[in-house]
Amino acid sequence: MISKFVREQKRYSIEELKEIFGSDIKGSAVDDASNLTEIIKKLKGYGILKTVEKNTEQSKMTFLDEEDVEVVSEEDNQNNCYYVFTFVGIIIVKGRIIKCVPKYMNSLDGITDNNPSDKIVLDFKQVIKVLKSGKNKKEVVNIYNDCGTDTSFNRLSVLVYLLDDYYENGLYTKTEDILETNGMGEINWDRTINDTYPIIYDNRPYYAELQTKRKVSDEDNFFKRLHEIVITECFKELNEAGLLDILGINDIELTEESLPDIGETECILYRLDKELNVQFNTRKQLLLNAIKAYIRNSAKLYDTNTFSLFGTNSFNLVWENVCKYVFDDKLDLKINNCGINNVIIPQNANYKKDSKLKDVIEKPKWCEFTKESSVESVAICTADKTLIPDLITIKKTEDELTFIIFDAKYYNLEFSGNVLSGQPGIGDITKQYLYQLAYKDFIKANGIKKVKNCFLMPSEENGKDGVVKKGYVCLDMLDALGLEYIEYRVLSARKLYELYLNNQKFEVDLFK
Fold it and tell me: Where are the domains positioned within the chain?
């Protein structure tokens, strides 16, 4: 299969798209206008590819503002616009594999033959691990790609789910509860008392026969064999597509059997439906539904009519989750458990010691003028939502506490002389100031002397200790209120992902 790398939110011309998509496994050239148009239409339909006006300003941008997105016909004006991928992960479309790296991986841009360095490949594999990690998983597998009225089977997502589930939980097992008399299992006292007669001695009952219960596992059951066949086929299919290494999947072949060896397709689906009707374990229900979807949809990854995804349109949320974890976010902790000894609640505060730290921030009050008995009064209603920072951590040393307000910003900030690009907007800056203002009374009441505000931005560079001290942003009118200016640090994404995947924390002292 044709396999290419692209960078999220980079501006691509139509000529570059032709080079990226090349020709498919059957040799159908992408420069066939109808073939390229079909690919673009499919990707745009699922929100993976967007178009912006082709001009000098757009060519230098590293983020996508929804106001810049243009609706362009796939057949017309292709030379007058740039194409922007808004996805991180793996896309399979018409026999082609597109690997979308995060936008901060700038080193991909200088590669003209799309033969990326080992570093890019390793970094992308790590990104896939982060996407697959339990901290980013949803409760259900995305069996279908959904785009309004267009719904298609997401084969890649199902293959990855089935293999990951196997590595985590093993093969499907079917157990049966066996009731015995005087067996080796757990005593079932309800049945023992209700179904047997005790011997009464000294006004105490003694049971000569005990009803016991034990679970028996059927090691040769139909569903275990079916699971083995499906897992083996999934491995072979990903191996043929050349995706095992990128997805971090090890070699595994459990059986030489195939689906026809255990029954016709309709018979297998019928037995799966029957098992689903009596199976109430959530994990097993998800697994059975995924196997059922896999069997129903027989098109392979390399078929030209296959469209599959594994990744996200919102990698900014992944970056935020990583930062929350490695910097030990305390927003959801109770105030009396967030690292402050003998915590003090300011007078007239609308929160208590057992409230969460995020509840300190005041919620808007909506007031309405009313008239009761010809007297004007005000009805007050408090809103449900308010400002919420990305994460807050409290650093404790021997003699003092530092209250640190972090904001994970998925931006590529660049200085070129006096020209600035890729920076957070004024709304992001003012909100970061307001976070400190919202906690001002709480900080003062607890004698916290140091407060720090900081933006956290990703980079593919390592830097010393994974942190590059870049600078700060300020607004004089808010600095005049006694608020700290906002520093910003560029962090090694590789370092943070490594800590995240190994369940480790980042040393805040490295921020200086």
Answer: 1-122, 175-217, 317-511
